[in-house]
Amino acid sequence: MSAEKKNWHASHKQSLTRGERAADVLRNSMGSWRLVAGFIAVMIIWAIVNFGLRDPWDPYPFILLNLFLSMLAGRQGAILLIAAKRQDAIAAAMAEHDFETETAAREGIEQLLAINRNSWR
């Protein structure tokens, strides 16, 4: 068996482009409690600072904050779709690799069975 087949995941990771790696990193970080806590902290700080200033840059209904959050939501949707598309490609490649491995194993087993049958005759 070649080294590529033994360590398929490592060779696949090496073949990723910079954009594909970035999509994976973003996908993994967007679904974390750390990011959620960070967003809550930023929004609380935003509100406190804007309430405490004499001349706030974003007064109470926080239109600018809402704009930023809307833009972020739009980008997150696209990034999640890109990541889902990548996961589908990875799953398809893994399924193909599994099929090749199982086919090779079946051939080996059939050869062993043939040898075993011939040795009993």
Mean pLDDT, rounded to whole units? Answer: 83
Major beta sheet, specifics?
none
Beta-strand fraction estimate: under 5%
Low-confidence stretches: none
Work out the number of β strands: 0
Total helical segments: 5
Instruction: Name the structural class.
Output: mainly alpha
Q: Based on CA inertia axes, which overall geometry fits?
A: rod-shaped
Distance between the termini: 32 Å
Mind telling me the C-alpha Rg? 26 Å
Number of domains: 1
Assembly state (oligomeric): single chain
One letter per element, helices H and strands E, the order comes to HHHHH
Which percent range fits the helix content? Answer: over 70%
Structure description:
By secondary structure, this protein is an all-alpha fold. The chain has one domain (16-119). It has helices spanning 3-6, 8-14, 18-30, 33-52, 63-119. α3 (18-30) packs across α5. The longest helix is centred in the C-terminal third of the chain and has 57 residues, at 63-119. It is rod-shaped, with a radius of gyration of 26 Å. It starts with a helix and ends with a helix. The mean pLDDT is 83.
